[in-house]
Amino acid sequence: MSAVAVDGLVIRFGDVEAVRGISFTVDSGESFGLLGPNGAGKTTTIRVLTTLLRPTAGAASVDGHDVVSGGLAIRQLLGYIPQAISIDGALTARENLEFYARVTGVARAERRDRIDHAVTVMALGGFLDRLGRTLSGGMLRRLEIATALLNRPRILFLDEPTVGLDPTARRLVWERLEELRESAGTTLLVTTHQMEEAERQCDRIAIMDLGTIVAHGTPADLCEEYGVDTLDEVFTAATGRTIEEGGSFRDARRSRRLSRRLG
Amino acid sequence: MHVEAAVSRVASADPLRRLFGGIGAMGWAEIRKLRHDNIDILTRSVQPLLWLFIFGTALRRNRALAGGFHDYRAYLAPGIMAQAALFIAIFFGLAVIWERDVGQLQRLLATPLPRLAIVLGKAGGAGIRALAQAVVLLVVLAATGISIQWTVGGVVGALVLLILATGGFACLSMILASLVRTRERFMGIGQMVMMPLFFASSALYPLSIMPSWLRVLAHGNPLTYEVHGMRQLLLGVHTGGTLWVDFVFVAAFLAVAAGVAAKTYPRAIL
Questions:
Q1: Among B6, B32, B103, whose Cβ lies nearest the Cβ of A83?
Q2: pLDDT-derived band of residue A222, with 50, 70 and 90 as boundaries?
Q3: I need a labelling partner for A37 at 20 to 30 A (CA). Which of A68, B7, B24, B254 fits?
Q4: What separation in angstroms does the CA of A97 have from each of A92, A113, A149, B199?
Q5: Which of residues 32-61 of B touch A (CB under 8 A)?
């Protein structure tokens, strides 16, 4: 069974069609990248898979549960880290862990062990008692990933996990995610507009542009198919544009505000 | 039963257990936040104290305004407590917009928490803040010798009524926030809703001196029932209407507002 199956998915907001009939599957234990410029429809797709939005047409399922009829079952097995910060700045790092353990349904008897484990895995020991709002961007991302691991998700959805991070913090985040995938077999579905990052970290990718999937496969196959060397060039070959041109004012405002706050 | 114990309430199959587990988790976080920011309660107490000691003192001997009660400051005190709590409650809508702008809202909605638990947990947080602030005001009343009736039943009853109503107003604020979605617009709407609620209630003056059109509005305003009940419990003032009606009206307001907020809340992410 596929970890994620999307079939002819359409999402419309009023007159705007944000996602225009996309289909793809993600295998269990795979690291799958959804790539594209801001405004391509990546986040909207993730919101359908995390049951925050209902599809206008088409179908999507996570671990065999339909996103419309099996919403609760999906929310019980997923981990989700949105692009913007999901840590509560008015709580300490430890309290954030405790809070997410409670709201993701970790049994009281297991909370301490799970939190201790996540603290070790994500190397959070040094700042557990600091308020969220005092943490740096890299610390926040690691803390967020830690809070998303407590319920031992079968699938982890990460929306632009490394946006606004410096190269060191970025590498650390990816190392931890890679370890997680190896030790727990967690499926990763990642969105990013960093093509070279996707090339390095993802088994397979789907390149989105203006609500459609324009290319789909392993990074190596795609480069071969288009006769180019990098995914950036694949994007240009498939769409006739460079990746920097996409996105709306609102997306740009949001990602800049985010990097400012993280930086 | 032993199997049940190994599962948290939020992960339970029973919707009621999930609801109470969720409210517990949300309320726990709100209490923790309050503990980190306890100075907030004191700074927020300045405004109600100004109302009480400047406005209240200036109009102290006005019998009509106090509905015949001998001290306008004592008469005003429950109204000011309710008003201060209303300010706290309205702020919770702003918090929802903030949580949407960062990613907390999206994240919470992707957990197994029931929507109603999220909303009621936040309403509980507003109630707890209102309670802390009311205790500060009660201490000031006691210290300055403003004559209210100090009975255990009266004080506890008034605080319960205050918590229920504040939770209801917090839900109302969350409904508005999920409709307007931006902070700038919410500030305007918040003022537009809050001041009429305040003036078209018995917080500052009795219903009996209102023009009839205003009295009609005041009769549909939960704040009127909240203040009426608190006044009766804290001062022993009987101005018509019975205590159980106040409790029923306020509880019904909370139930309806929470129900609607649970429906509109997920729309805030769009």
A1: B103
A2: very high
A3: A68
A4: 9, 12, 10, 43
A5: 32-33, 36-37
Q: What are phi and psi of A24, to 5 degrees?
A: -165, 165
CB contact under 8 A, B22 and A52: no
**Token reading at B4:** 């049940």
Amino acid symbol at A17? E
User: d(Cα A214, Cα A204) in Å, to the nearest integer?
Assistant: 14
The pTM (predicted TM-score) of the whole model is: 0.88
**Mutation test of the interface with chain A: which of B28, B108, B111, choosing the one with the most A Cβ atoms within 10 A?**
B111
DSSP string, chain A: --SEEEEEEEEEETTEEEEEEEEEEE-TT-EEEEE--TTSSHHHHHHHHTTSS--SEEEEEETTEETTTTHHHHHHHEEEE-SS--S-TTSBHHHHHHHHHHHTT--HHHHHHHHHHHHHHTT-GGGTTSBGGGS-HHHHHHHHHHHHHTT--SEEEEESTTTT--HHHHHHHHHHHHHHHHHH--EEEEEES-HHHHHHH-SEEEEEETTEEEEEE-HHHHHHHHT-SSHHHHHHHHHSS-GGG---HHHHHHHHHHHHHH-
CATH superfamily of A4-262: P-loop containing nucleotide triphosphate hydrolases (3.40.50.300)
Residues B247-269, buried b or exposed e (16+ Cβ, 10 A)? bebbbebbeebbebbbebbbebb
Identify the pLDDT of residue A252. 53
A·B CB contacts under 8 A: 91
Helix (H, G, I), strand (E, B) or coil at B261: helix
Q: Taking the CA atoms of chain A, what radius of gyration do you get in angstroms?
A: 18
Q: What secondary structure does DSSP assign to A153-208, as a single string? A: -SEEEEESTTTT--HHHHHHHHHHHHHHHHHH--EEEEEES-HHHHHHH-SEEEEE
**B177-223 tens-digit pLDDT:** 998 888 888 988 888 888 899 999 989 888 888 999 999 999 999 99
pLDDT digits (tens, 9 = 90+) for A44-67: 999 999 999 999 999 999 999 999
Average pLDDT, chain B: 89
* C-alpha span between A237 and A233 (Å, rounded): 6
Q: Chain B residue closest to A51 (CA)?
A: B110
The two structure tokens encoding residue B121: 């947990």
